[in-house]
Write a structure and sequence with these properties.
Layout lengths: L12 E12 L2 E13 L5 E2 L2 H15 L24
Antiparallel strand pairs: 1-2, 2-3
């Protein structure tokens, strides 16, 4: 993982956990409490390749019904062009 932010150049990256959205074909998996490094200045997040591979493997297992997720959520989907403008 980087020692400085590739986006803004800041050298202060803090270990945190975050929510990660993984898309596979037309399916999405929301993974909570994913470890990452986050830039203290711009918020860019960096993930270890092992963490991302684990998420991909788990998503494949869920998609092939070899594993059940902790829960399901209903998510609304909207095109940006169709968003209502606020007065």
């Amino acid at each position: 993982m980087p020692g400085t932010c590739a986006f803004c150049g800041n050298s202060h990256l803090t270990p945190k956990t975050t929510r990660y959205l993984h898309q596979r074909h037309n399916e999405m998996l929301i993974v909570e409490d994913v470890p990452c490094l986050e830039c203290d200045f711009c918020g860019e997040q960096y993930f270890d390749v092992g963490v991302l591979k684990r998420i991909e493997e788990d998503h494949r297992a869920i998609a092939s019904h070899r594993r059940q997720p902790a829960r399901y959520v209903q998510v609304a989907v909207e095109s940006f062009e169709c968003l209502a403008t606020q007065p």
